[in-house]
Predict the structure.
Amino acid sequence: VGSRMKRPDRALLLVALVSISVLLFGLASAAPAPKIVISHRAASGYLPEHTLPAVAMAYAFGADYIEQDVALTKDGVLMVIHDIYLDATTNVKQLFPDRKRADGRFYVCDFTLAEIKSLRVGERVNPATGAPAFAGRFPLGASKFEMPTFAEEIEMIQGLNKSTGRNIGIYPEVKGSAFHHREGFDIERIFLDVLAKYGYTSPGSKIFVQSFEPDCLKRLRELGCTLPLVQLLPATAGYEAPAPLSTPAALLTPAGLDYIASYADGIGPSTTLIETSKGVPVEGYALVRGAHERGLVVHPYTFRRDSMPTVYSSFEEMLRHFYFDIGVDGLFTDFTDIAVKVLSGAGK
Ligand code: G3P
Ligand code: CA
């Protein structure tokens, strides 16, 4: 048939095919990205946070991304730990009682990798009282866990990606950027070197990089980082105002969101910037709407079944409300399994 078609007819057919392709591509690209579950400190609702067993559990639950907080050892190795201190999640006080600073804290960057590997990691406690941060979670002191390096955790997730055929992402947060620089470490450069070693180098890499400190994210851009970046927004600002803004709180204004959009791809607000701790909407969800208007994804933190506003009749109801009524694109949760069920429509 093609050989008998006249030239003008062929041209028309070509134009029609190109138009249909453009239309289909347009429809596909207009479709919203799927909402995601970010496993906060891995499956931390069930096992001690940031341990490899908790990572395996989060993976098996069906997380889309698993979160790592990272801080540096004395010998410049990135460890997966939430704090720049060791005393809330390890037995450092028992093993190295003389190594605290004047403020009474034991800093990750005062210990070598070998020393940190000798510590036992457990459930988070209040360092002042020794009481568990979440009473109903994994028992204190039970079983045996160690702290993974950032590289070890990436190898675990990438290994599972190979053996399962899935492609789960990582969602690392650089902890204490300004602190590490004061201690003489260029943490962003070390961080990017580890990521490059494991192939996280392009905007399409399965990763979001997060920080509370605008200067950290801007430093990453200065170093040539093209990965998706997320500006975390705390309930109460604990960092200095970035240069063009008068106060840290100004990041939450339209001008602040314009500023964030100049270097980041998303925001990670505390849930209390969207709703108060009693579940009352803050300014008609203006923050979420403002971010979306600027093309920023919105990934609030942290959703915990054992610490939530009483206004909701269940944890699932709260998750559904944020995902589908407020319209967030993803959320950080200690209870990955429940969020996965809610997104799949199975959560009751
Ligand atoms: O990174 C999102 C959320 O984890 C921020 O809070 O204190 O758990 O690191 P935090
Ligand atoms: Ca974090």
